[in-house]
Specification:
Strand order of the largest sheet: 10-17-16-15-11-12-13-18
Radius of gyration: 19 Å
Number of helices: 8
Helix content: 25-40%
CATH superfamily of the largest domain: Endonuclease Chain A
Distance between the termini: 50 Å
Shape: globular
CATH class of the largest domain: Alpha Beta
Order of helices and strands: EEHEHEEEEEEHEHEHEHEEEEHEHE
Structural class: alpha/beta
Amino acid sequence: MTIYELADPAAEQILAEAAANHVMVRLILDRNLEFHNNQAAFDYLQQHGVQVVWAAKKYASTHQKSIVVDGTAAAIMTLNLTSRFYPSTRDFAVLDTDPVDVSAMEQVFDADFHDGATTSTPAGSDLVWSPTEANTSLLQLIRSAQTSLQIEAEEMSDSAIVTALADAAHRGVRVEVTMTYDESYAKNFGQLVEAGAQVNTYSADAALYIHAKVILEDYGTPNVALFAGSENFSATSLDRNRELGLIVTDPAILFSIHGTLSEDFRGGTPVPFSEPRP
């Protein structure tokens, strides 16, 4: 497991019980930003037979959220294992049984577990890694959209991503963005709305907090594809963190996530367009 933040007593107990039952449990926890939040879990797991290490300091943070089981299946997640947020945050996890993807994840885990000196990553069949190729992959996905883009994100600060979304709206793609409102992204929201995108937001104190990081492209067409993963739309996330996402085309997953994205978008409040101040 590679987890940015772990503060879930039930999950920690399950890991400890697995180790007690002679399952080899290995875990990487972030320390650059989440040292204090992860310290209790680190100590507990270390005392209960789990092989737990702090993530490499070479990354701005290890923001990846993933689990590999028995070399045959993996979960790639937008969520941290922090139980206090489960009732209120929108997040997704995708199960991946592609042997090439699972093998690639294990290779990267082994390197990161031993504080490997390289950031190079095996691509797998559908994986999107940071800091190596996420920027290119996400921009390519957005630029290839023909009819629609449905997006949920926690951050909207990367200028290349914002410009690509605005360009998509300009060329007639229906762009729907759902986020929790943050004043620091107001200028970028304005750029998107001016271009014709629809940006719906939730207040910071709303019952639902948008923590997911997903892009659903051209739903209902042969060009449909979904990105889901740990990458935020920020330069730090895309270029400096250890992150992992996945490109998905499975119809059942697409149908489920499309429904949730559509419902969340309808529940948000449109960001009004306003002319930029002189």
